[in-house]
Automatic annotation (TrEMBL):
It is an enzyme of class 3 (hydrolase). The chain crosses the membrane at residues 12-33. Residues 198-298 form the M23ase beta-sheet core domain. This is L-Ala--D-Glu endopeptidase. It comes from the Bacteria. SUPFAM superfamilies: Duplicated hybrid motif (SSF51261).
Length: 354
C-alpha cells in the first residue's frame, strides 16, 4: 500500500509539473496552424510581445493572379470595385493555401456574389484563416496595383512625351523590355557553395549586360560584393514590407552609375546589369557557370525578421511571370554607356518626394 502511494505521489508531481509548464507556455505564446498542419503565426497574449506573422508560403498561380488583376482593373469605374488581393486571399483560404486546387469557376462564383451585393466580410465570416492570408498576401502584393502617371508618346507632337494617368500594375519585370530570358521554378532547390542551403529566389537566365530593373520603388539598403551573390543590390519598399534582392551582377561594372546606398529609386529604373559573379571569396570574380540574375523577395512583418535565421523569403516564380505584363523600356547613353528608362512614372501617394 505504501509503495502504491509513493508511485501515485510521483505521478501526481509529474502531472502538476506538466500542467504548470503547459500553463506558462499558454500564457506566453500560442501558435496557429493552417489546415495543412503548417504553422502560420505565433503571438503572445499576455507578455506584451508584438503579434506578427512568423511563416508565409506563397504559391498563387499565374492564372489566378492574372485573372484577379484583370477583374480589379476592369471594375475600377464600376459600382462594385473588386480588390485583387481580397480575391486571391479568399481563394487561398478556400484552398488552404494550395493553388493547385485553383479553378476559374471558383473566382467567377466569388465575383458573382460580390457583384450581387454580398460583401467580402460576409463571405469570409466563417473562413478561419482568411485574415491571415489577407495580411500575408497584402504584404506581398498590396502595393503592386494602384494609380500612377506615366510618360507616353504624344501622337500629335512628334517625339515629345506627355503624362497619362492610369490605374493598374505599377511594378515592373526585373528584366528590361526587349531582352530575353528564361527561368523555371527553382525555389527551394539545394545549393552547396559555402554550406548546404536552399535557393531562396528565382534564377533568370539571360545575357551578360542585360539591364536590370527596380521592380518596385524603394530605398537602396545595400549594394556591393557578397561571396555568395557576387555583386548584388538590396532594395527595401517604402512601406518596409518587401526587400528585393538582385544578385550575380556583371563583373567590373555591375551597378548603374547613379546608384548608391540610401538612394530612393523608382519602379522601372535601371539599377544594374546581369552577369555571373559570385561563389568566390575573392571580389569581382566570375565563378557562376551560367549568366543569370538571382531575384528574390523577402517579406518583413517585423524588423526582427530582417536579418535572422527565420527570414521569410517567398517563391517569386509566378510573380516574375505576372510582371512580364509590365516591362520597362530603356535607352542607352552612348557617352556614359549606362542605360536609362525611356518613360518616367509618378506614383500616387508613394510617400516619397523624388
Amino acid at each position: 500500500m505504501f509503495y502504491f502511494l509513493k508511485i501515485n505521489k510521483r505521478i501526481y508531481k509529474v502531472f502538476i509539473a506538466f500542467a504548470l509548464i503547459t500553463a506558462i507556455l499558454a500564457a506566453s505564446t500560442f501558435v496557429v496552424f493552417n489546415d495543412r498542419g503548417l504553422a502560420i503565426s505565433a503571438a503572445a497574449d499576455s507578455t506584451g510581445e508584438k503579434k506578427f506573422i512568423k511563416w508565409v508560403e506563397f504559391n498563387a498561380c499565374y492564372q489566378a493572379m492574372e485573372r484577379a488583376l484583370t477583374l480589379d482593373v476592369k471594375s475600377r469605374s464600376k459600382e462594385v470595385q473588386l480588390n485583387w488581393v481580397e480575391l486571391l486571399s479568399y481563394l487561398a483560404a478556400k484552398y488552404g493555401g494550395n493553388f493547385k486546387k485553383y479553378k476559374s469557376k471558383d473566382m467567377d462564383e466569388l465575383v458573382s456574389k460580390l457583384n450581387k451585393g454580398q460583401t467580402m466580410e460576409q463571405l469570409t465570416e466563417n473562413m478561419k484563416y482568411y485574415g491571415y492570408y489577407h495580411e500575408a498576401y497584402d504584404a506581398i502584393l498590396g502595393n503592386f496595383v494602384g494609380e500612377y502617371e506615366v510618360q507616353v508618346k504624344d501622337p500629335d507632337n512628334g517625339d515629345s512625351l506627355r503624362w497619362e494617368k492610369k490605374y493598374g500594375l505599377k511594378v515592373f519585370s526585373p528584366i528590361a523590355r526587349g531582352y530575353s530570358f528564361s527561368h523555371y521554378d527553382d525555389f527551394g532547390n539545394g545549393r552547396t557553395f559555402g554550406y548546404a542551403r536552399k535557393h531562396l529566389g528565382n534564377d533568370l537566365m539571360g545575357s551578360i549586360g542585360t539591364p536590370i530593373i527596380a521592380v518596385e520603388s524603394g530605398i537602396v539598403e545595400v549594394m556591393g560584393w557578397n561571396m555568395y551573390g557576387g555583386w548584388r543590390i538590396g532594395i527595401r519598399s517604402f512601406d518596409q514590407k518587401r526587400y528585393y534582392y538582385y544578385a550575380h551582377l556583371r563583373k567590373d561594372r555591375p551597378f548603374h552609375a547613379d546608384l548608391y546606398e540610401g538612394k530612393a529609386v523608382k519602379a522601372g529604373e535601371v539599377i544594374g546589369y546581369l552577369g555571373m559573379t559570385g561563389y568566390s571569396t575573392r571580389e569581382n570574380v566570375n565563378n557562376i557557370t551560367t549568366p543569370h540574375l538571382h531575384f528574390g523577395m523577402q517579406i518583413i512583418f517585423d524588423e526582427s525578421q530582417k536579418e535572422c535565421v527565420n527570414e521569410l523569403w517567398i517563391n517569386v516564380y509566378e510573380i516574375v511571370n505576372l510582371l512580364q505584363k509590365n516591362r520597362s523600356s530603356v535607352v542607352k547613353d552612348e557617352e556614359t554607356r549606362d542605360y536609362y528608362r525611356a518613360y518616367d512614372i509618378m506614383e500616387e501617394n508613394s510617400g516619397y518626394d523624388f
